[in-house]
Design a protein that fits this description.
The chain starts with 14 loop residues before the first helix and ends in a 5-residue tail after the last strand. Helix 1 packs antiparallel against helix 2 and helix 4 packs antiparallel against helix 5. It is α+β, with helices and mostly antiparallel strands and about 240 residues long. The strands form 2 sheets. It has a 4-stranded antiparallel β-sheet. A two-stranded antiparallel ribbon has the order 1-2. Helix content is about 45%, strand content about 20%. The chain folds into 2 domains: about 130 residues, no CATH class; about 80 residues, Alpha-Beta Plaits (2-Layer Sandwich), CATH 3.30.70. It has 8 helices and 6 strands; from the N terminus they run αααββαααβαββαβ. Strand 4 and strand 5 form a beta hairpin.
Length: about 240
């Protein structure tokens, strides 16, 4: 049977040892993927498991070829089995790049791409027989994604929203001075005619700081409504983790 904390890559691994590597990768992918699936992220349970297994299989195959002859006397080809791991990391880079989306100044999916990257490294560690390293990496990944989430939620970060108000004259009240006492900053971004033709719609980029665990307050809308009608208030934000 395999040694739980083995750190060597044997030249002649046994089948129980190889099965143990695959099973440990499967368990690690299940635990990490379950965390992502429960939060509704694009790379969920099956994706995370498959990425880890792909890395593990590549490393197992490299391990099985370690004792193969590197180059025959009449051959120009030299075998470098460690290129298997490089190929897997390159492939996961494409998957991670596809998970990252950008809409204007908003970037999402970075944590998903990073999860795929670390899951690949965990699969390579288990596939290479480095069980202790793989277990530690799995635990630290779960701590980062789950246990540290509450820290991320408590950090005050920048939030943005698009505010549109209607006003019959050429310029509305000073929205910036109205929302500033509440901790908001408003910057004018554009104006257009209202569909009824009797008013103008003025749009502002509103910014403020607050932790993600706190729901956006409607106090600012109540204050603005006292001065002019609010046509639109759309919060633009990134889903944490």
């Amino acid at each position: 049977m395999f040694e739980p904390l083995c750190c060597d890559m044997p030249l002649h691994p046994t089948w129980p040892d190889l099965v143990g590597r695959l099973l440990l990768t499967l368990v690690a992918g299940f635990l990490i993927g379950l965390n992502r699936e429960a939060r509704g992220h694009s790379a969920g349970l099956r994706t995370t498991i498959l990425v880890g297994l792909a890395a593990c299989v590549a490393m197992v195959q490299a391990n099985m070829l370690l004792d193969a002859s590197g180059k025959a006397p009449d051959s120009f080809v030299r075998m470098d089995v460690m290129r298997f791991a490089l190929g897997v990391l390159t492939g996961v880079g494409f998957i991670g790049g596809g998970a990252i989306l950008r809409r204007g100044d908003l970037v999402t999916g970075v944590t998903t791409a990073a999860t795929m990257w670390i899951m690949t490294m965990i699969g390579l560690a288990f596939g290479g027989g480095q069980f202790g390293l793989g277990v530690i990496a799995t635990i630290l990944t779960l701590v980062t994604l789950q246990a540290l989430k509450w820290v991320d939620l408590k950090i005050a970060r920048d939030h943005r929203a698009i505010l549109s108000v209607s006003w019959p004259k050429s310029s509305p009240p000073d929205i910036g001075s109205i929302v500033r006492p509440l901790g908001y900053d408003a910057r004018f971004v554009g104006v257009e005619h209202h569909p009824d033709g009797n008013r103008f719609v003025f749009s502002f980029n509103v910014q403020w700081k607050q932790p993600d665990e706190v729901e956006p307050s409607t106090d600012v809308l109540a204050v603005i409504t006292e001065h002019c009608p609010v046509e639109r208030f759309e919060v633009i934000g990134e889903k944490p983790f």
